[in-house]
Structures are given as C-alpha cells and as structure tokens.
From TrEMBL:
Designated name of the protein: TnsA-like heteromeric transposase endonuclease subunit
InterPro entries tied to this protein: TnsA-like
Amino acid sequence: MQSHVAFESWLERDHLMLLDFAPEVVAVAAQPFTAVLPTSSGPRKHTPDFFVRTGDGTGVVIDVRPDSRAAKDADVFEATAAVCAHVGWGYQRLGDITPPFAANVRWLSGYRQVKSRGVV
C-alpha cells in the first residue's frame, strides 16, 4: 500500500508486517468500524483491529489478541465472525507469533521499507 496503517500493540504491528508481505493483500484499514454485537452476556460494542481487502475483492475482518487473552473475548470474536459471514466477509483472530519469526519479519521489513522509498 505504501502508506502507514495505525496499530495499538506490538503484536498488531507484527501482524501488519506479515500482511504487508502477503501477496494477496492489496489494502489494510485499521479499526474499520464499531459494531454492537449480540453476545451471551448481552450487547457489546466491538471495534475490530483491521479490515483487509485481497486482490480478488474478498474482505477479511481481523482481530489481534495474544493467545493468553483470547478466551476473555471469545464471545465477541464469535459474534463478529457470524456478522462477517452474514455480509460475505471472512474473519480471522490472529494471535501470538513466535519470537524468532517475529524478529525475522521485523528485520526483513526494514529492508522492504528502504526499497519502497527508492533508496536502494
């Protein structure tokens, strides 16, 4: 996309870097909408972390949570997935990335940024 996308955690940043390397991803928007979702504990407001558009036009809503905190919001993720399916979008909850893999992606992303600015 050659533009900045906001993130709220280091884990979100690392997943953005991975999305940047995914050839099928053509656009990413941060915090694309807020919805009031029906959950087992009553209605809850939820703002997903990203909306991704792929080259074939598919939309995917993404929530990023560390695996250790995902169970706390499982009902919201389930409700978000149901709403996304209803409107024809995909849904993913992304979690932890192993430290060596994340370090490699961060290192490689540094070179990707330099090349995209025309420095190399």
